[in-house]
Specification:
By secondary structure, the protein is an all-alpha fold. It has a domain of 172 residues: Helix Hairpins (Orthogonal Bundle). 96% of the residues lie in helices and 0% in strands. The protein is built from 4 helices and no strands. It starts with a helix and ends with a helix. Keywords: Coiled coil. It comes from Ciona intestinalis. InterPro entries: Growth_transcription_reg, TMF_TATA-bd.
Length: 317
Amino acid sequence: MENLQATHAAQEKTWETLEKSLTSRLNEQQNQLLAAQDKERFAQMALMEAKSRLLRSDQQLTEATQTIEQITSELESLRKNRREHDKEVTRLKKIIEENEEQHSDAMSKARRDRVNLENQLDMEKVRSEVEKKKFQSQVETVQKEKERLLWLSRSESVGSSASIFNTDVESVASSSDTFNHVDSFDRSYQLGSTAVYDTIRGASGSALLENLQSQLKQRDGEIAQLQGEINTLERTRSSMAEEIVRLTNENEEMEVTVGQVDELTRKLKEVTARHDAVLTMYGEKAEEAEELKLDLEDVKTMYRNQIDSLLRNDYVK
């Protein structure tokens, strides 16, 4: 009986010890379970956060890719516009250089022609004035001779009148020799005058008048011809003035074209600045996209590590 009681007491004590041990292990397992549940919740939260970051990273990567594509398209458009502007500027510069050269040559030729025409016109005016004065002098001389012949015909005989007439005509011829210093046109006139005086010596007073009238008509025709030439020179001068006005207008148009080239140059500089800015932005976006890719890889790695940790914990349990 005592042995049974002792055995029972020992067994009871053993069961109590075992119960305490099991209870302790149960509590420990419960604590571990709570800790595992906490870890699981933390892992779930981390997983959800990782998924959210992954989605945001994917979205940012997509936006960055779209932005890069848009910037690339704008960059290509700017490059195309720049090439077109370069071609236009080159074409306009070439046109300006050609027009400036043509304008300079035309202006130089117009100035030379104008000076030559003015000099020629002045010479013709001087020659015309000399001819007019000479004709007036000759007409007055002939008129005086006519009056003298008429007076002599009334007072003297025909023979003595002819003698006096010849003497007076020779004096008129000698006085007309003073015009020999004028140009070739004047010398031709002197030859004609000599012919007139030769006719006077051998003809009557009426024949003299007819010859003088014929010579005067001839000289009037020459004066009219000279006047026509003067009018032609005047018209040419007016035409040259119109040409100068036209060239001046072309010069003003060229100045406007130069202003357009300056405007195109300014726009080209603006396009170049925008091009450089787009290149800088493109580089920044490319770096940002690369960083997003690296962040995405980090998030994926962390996500895989957390899943592996959870799987190991479940396997241990």
